[in-house]
Known about the structure:
- By secondary structure, the chain is of the alpha+beta class.
- It is 14% helix and 33% strand.
Amino acid sequence: MAETLFELPETPVIAVTGEQEGYPAGRIFCVGRNYAAHAAEMGNEIDREAPFYFTKSAANAVLSGAEVPYPPGTADFHHEMELAVAIGAPLFQAAPEAAMAAVYGYACALDMTRRDLQQRERKKQRPWDLGKDLEAGTVLAPVTRSADWDGPGAQRIWLEVNGEIRQDAQLSEMVWPVAELLSHLSGFYHLRPGDLVLTGTPAGVGPVAAGDSIRGGIDGLEPVQLTLTAGE
């Protein structure tokens, strides 16, 4: 094997509750408009025919507790609280029941978004990459093994900024439940251990600023935290 010219940034290894070994983050798939109330607040209608996805780079992800600077190029940086599904076995063209058997665990996650850039590109029918796949734009809390959690079901999902609740809903409000999402996505990709699926955000998304402390949680899972700084 040839020597490389340089080293690439390492992708995060997520702690697993109660385990010594961590979960290495691979590909990150994100589901769009999976809560009807959030779609409505963004001025969109739900398409129940099929879910849709965008991707984020694992190299741009950070672990819960990170302190990161307010990102460049935006004046409208938003929080989005989500349930992340961690894949633990190969999955391809699977029925919903079989898809759930491939889940290793679950985690809280933040899908941070340069909303002004996302909306600008969406109006021009361009990809959302500038708005979504930004440095430190995905924040991942420790994974809880699926056998150690009784979800996903009607668990509360919430987010607060500086102690003030911004998002407050239940996982049961998803348009596409986890089993259906994984089954559908596995029709297009050979899913594999390390893949993460962020399952969408409920209503209440909004802007954050340098100096803000962001904390989100889902009943039974470890919370996710992020602090924005003014540094570059």
